[in-house]
Design a protein that fits this description.
Elements: E1 41-45, H1 49-63, E2 71-75, H2 86-91, E3 99-102, E4 109-112, H3 114-125, H4 133-163, H5 169-189, H6 203-216, H7 224-227, H8 234-244, H9 247-253
Helix pairs in contact: 1-3, 1-6, 1-9, 4-5, 4-6, 5-8, 6-8
């Protein structure tokens, strides 16, 4: 690998810019009208690990008999740059999925960041978040752990292992070490717990499973299950399989994302 000489001031290469790519500025890039369905909850997302969290929560609420958790689900194709459209940016200025609008509130309430959405839904419907202080704090500990730890798996390990244009030893070693440390942490925590935060299924499980559960099951990055030797994490494996077998989780994985535009647009 060739050495990289740091410039005194970093500049973005405009020739690399594309409609769907990242660049060092925020805000909308084009006008966009998002469709709005009949349900109170409008979800604009994609079937990525972060996006799956919200559909899992909503399907679990519906399975629990919460009819008010009915939702309309729309596909934000990040490869096409849908996240930079004006309507989506109005909901989430950070231009990341998932985003949700609760139209049962007046005025309508915009939500973004998966942890914020799950916490909001748990408090709104009084499900999957304990009321006693100790249990609630433990659930939130793990919710916020995931929001801080997850980027090492997705933006770190996943990027350099699966998406980078060439294999680079230093970043792969660095992020593989941290990913395996996190997997080992979860494996140890689950040695004497049924679920991440204790004896009850909670939003902590819904936050962590789409990343770490699916990673343990070999469903995130091709070949990563062998590369990471995930079979060694027996407790994590058992938990991942248990969550995967939940009907609401399967319903979330099979959820139909409605188009926001004509396919030939």
């Amino acid at each position: 690998m060739t050495s990289y000489e740091l410039p005194k001031v970093w500049h973005w290469d405009d020739e690399k810019e594309s409609k769907s790519g990242n660049r060092p500025d925020a805000g909308s890039r084009f006008d966009q009208d998002l469709p709005v369905g009949d349900a109170d909850l409008q979800v604009y997302s994609l079937g990525t690990p972060n996006g799956i969290k919200v559909t899992v929560m909503l399907e679990e609420l519906l399975a629990a008999g919460v009819e008010e958790a009915d939702y309309d689900l729309y596909k934000i194709n990040i490869g096409d740059g849908d996240q930079f459209g004006s309507d989506f940016v109005a909901i989430n200025p950070n231009s990341k999925i998932p985003a949700m609008v609760d139209r049962s509130q007046n005025p309508a309430l915009n939500l973004f960041e998966s942890g914020s959405i799950l916490l909001y839904l748990a408090e709104k419907f009084h499900y999957f978040l304990p009321e006693d202080n100790h249990s609630r704090a433990e659930v939130l500990n793990w919710v916020f752990w995931q929001t801080g730890a997850g980027p090492y798996v997705g933006g770190g390990f996943g990027h350099f292992f699966n998406y980078a244009p060439e294999a680079m030893k230093y970043p792969i070693d660095r992020f593989t070490m941290e990913t395996k440390r996190q997997l080992d942490l979860l494996d140890k925590i689950l040695a004497d717990r049924d679920y991440i935060a204790g004896s009850d299924y909670s939003i902590a499980d819904m936050m962590i499973w789409p990343w770490y559960g699916r990673l343990a099951l070999g469903e995130l990055y091709e070949g990563s299950d062998v590369f990471l030797a995930v079979d060694q994490y027996k407790n994590l494996q058992a938990w991942a399989k248990k969550i995967n077998q939940r009907p609401a989780v399967q319903a979330a994985l099979a959820a139909d994302y409605q188009a926001i535009k004509e396919e030939n647009d």
